[in-house]
Write a structure and sequence with these properties.
- By secondary structure, the chain is an alpha/beta fold.
- It has one domain: Lumazine/riboflavin synthase (Rossmann fold, 3-Layer(aba) Sandwich), CATH 3.40.50.960.
- It is about 45% helix and about 15% strand.
- The protein has a five-stranded mixed beta sheet, sandwiched between helices.
- α1 crosses α6 and α2 packs parallel to α4.
- The longest helix has 20 residues.
- It binds ligand DLZ.
- Ligand DLZ binds next to β4 and α4.
- This is 6,7-dimethyl-8-ribityllumazine synthase.
- It comes from Penicillium nalgiovense.
- Belongs to the DMRL synthase family.
- Pathway: Cofactor biosynthesis; riboflavin biosynthesis; riboflavin from 2-hydroxy-3-oxobutyl phosphate and 5-amino-6-(D-ribitylamino)uracil: step 1/2.
- Catalyzes the formation of 6,7-dimethyl-8-ribityllumazine by condensation of 5-amino-6-(D-ribitylamino)uracil with 3,4-dihydroxy-2-butanone 4-phosphate. This is the penultimate step in the biosynthesis of riboflavin.
Length: about 200
């Protein structure tokens, strides 16, 4: 079945000069892993260097806004710091932080050009879903507007597991992996934000 819904024709952008973070929740890991892989795939396809992609996890989606805010602040501090070798983990002072990629590298790094926040909320029997979805949506928008860094909204708010699997490209309907769109959006916004500075 054809549909008019979607991000439109793919655009080509050169992401080779960009530094991007992916922050993802660990709830609903099967779906999350696929979304993260899709985002990373399109970042790499646009030329973003593997070493310039940082992946960090948080327990659940509710933790995403703070993690995005602190990660971006840490990357700014890191860029401004004359003390080379200060790690993002040190700056975040987070006992549970798990940083992969080059956020720990001793070489100076520029602040992130975009951050992709990925979570999967699946509606349950209580009001948890509504409260978390609302708080995270507003929180991520607030971080984006307060900081000026593009925060890509990779929060799936689905009613069933099947809906989540479909949107990660794991269903039977042929729906594509939405994580890929988020990777592309991060590159486009990371570049356009420079033009809009
Ligand atoms: C508690 C909770 C529930 C019920 N469902 C989800 C979910 O579907 N997706 C998700 O990312 N996180 C969920 N969480 C965990 C919260 O986001 C959060 O991690 C905890 O409430 C601790 O703050």
């Amino acid at each position: 079945m054809t549909t008019i819904k979607g991000p439109g024709a793919a655009q080509t952008h050169d992401g080779s000069g960009l530094r991007v973070a992916i922050v993802h929740a660990r709830w609903n890991t099967v779906i999350i892993d696929q979304l993260v892989a899709g985002a990373k795939k399109n970042l790499l396809a646009a030329g973003v260097l593997e070493e310039n992609i940082t992946v960090q996890t948080v327990p659940g989606s509710y933790e995403l806004p703070l993690a995005v805010q602190r990660l971006y602040a840490a990357s700014q501090l890191q860029a401004n710091s004359s003390a080379q070798g200060i790690s993002a983990t040190d700056l975040l002072s987070s006992p549970t932080a798990e940083v992969t990629g080059s956020a720990n590298a001793a070489s100076p790094k520029k602040p992130f050009d975009a951050i992709i926040a990925i979570g999967v909320l699946i509606k349950g029997a209580t009001m948890h879903f509504e409260y978390i979805a609302d708080a995270v949506s507003h929180g991520l928008m607030r971080v984006q507007l307060d900081s000026g860094v593009p925060v890509i909204f990779g929060l799936l708010t689905v009613l069933t597991e099947e809906q989540g699997l479909e949107r990660a490209g794991l269903g039977n309907s042929g729906m594509h992996n939405h994580g890929e769109d988020w990777g592309s959006a991060a590159v486009e916004l990371g570049l356009k934000r420079r033009d809009w500075a």
